[in-house]
Specification:
With 231 residues, the chain is mostly helical. The chain is 73% helix and 0% strand. The protein has helices spanning 2-5, 18-51, 56-70, 74-84, 87-96, 109-134, 138-146, 151-166, 168-181, 193-203, 213-230.
């Protein structure tokens, strides 16, 4: 334990630009996570509504889609999409990404990473949302129907407001997982915090002070803990 807390092993944090370099990498993770969270919630809700549809031509394909993506390893999805995304899609992404985004997010490989995170997490969130909606007593929908509300109005004003509250703990837990899973994008050479951490441990980046591997990754872990506790 003394090795962990030895001040000499933490000197690298304030040496040179090590802290800034790691934090810039962490911002890339956060931006990927924010994009993934927003789109995963939207597509997850749409899939959940499709899954509970009484029309099998809608519910069955949606069920197959969800079962396929949520049962594949995320790292496999990211690797596959990084290679399989058409060149035209990659170019469209590069043309659409704002100039103020970090250079790491302007890499064409980011599109595959984002698609992987969204496809996987929207499938998982779909099941969370579906279970929250179906957990409501059937009388809620019957009461709404007796008031003359259409199906869309029932979902908007009665079912979803109650169901979404019930699924908050599980939804937040999945969003925390999504945030942590952004570290997987380093396998396709995206310059995020884990790759920055390896650079710091290898070179003592801009500091000239050796950065112990254990302390560097403890520091990265503390960054994720701070953000996930905020969630």
């Amino acid at each position: 334990m003394s090795y962990i807390f030895d001040p000499d092993n933490w000197e690298w944090v304030v040496s040179g630009n090590n802290f800034r370099f790691l934090f810039e990498g962490f911002l890339v993770n956060l931006e990927i996570a924010l994009i993934g969270i927003a789109l995963s919630l939207i597509f997850g809700l749409l899939l959940a509504l499709m899954r509970i549809s009484k029309r099998w031509l809608i519910s069955f394909p949606a069920g197959v889609w969800v079962d396929v993506w949520r049962n594949l390893p995320l790292i496999l999805i990211i690797l596959y999409l990084a290679l399989a995304v058409p060149t035209s899609w990659r170019q469209a992404y590069i043309d659409a990404i704002p100039d103020f985004f970090p250079e790491a997010l302007q890499d064409e490989l980011v599109l595959g990473a984002l698609l992987g995170l969204i496809l996987y997490n929207s499938a998982v969130l779909c099941e969370i949302m579906r279970s929250g909606i179906l957990s409501l007593d059937r009388g809620q929908r019957e009461a709404a129907a007796s008031l003359g509300l259409t199906y869309v109005q029932q979902m908007r004003f009665v079912i979803l407001p109650q169901g979404l509250r019930r699924m908050v703990p599980a939804t937040v837990s999945q969003l925390i997982t999504l945030n942590k899973d952004t570290t997987l994008v380093s396998i396709i050479a995206i310059q995020e915090v884990m790759r920055h951490g390896r650079i710091v441990t290898s070179f003592g980046f801009f500091g000239g002070v050796q950065a112990p591997v254990l302390q560097v990754f403890i520091f990265i872990g503390l960054l994720f803990i701070a953000v996930n506790l905020a969630l």
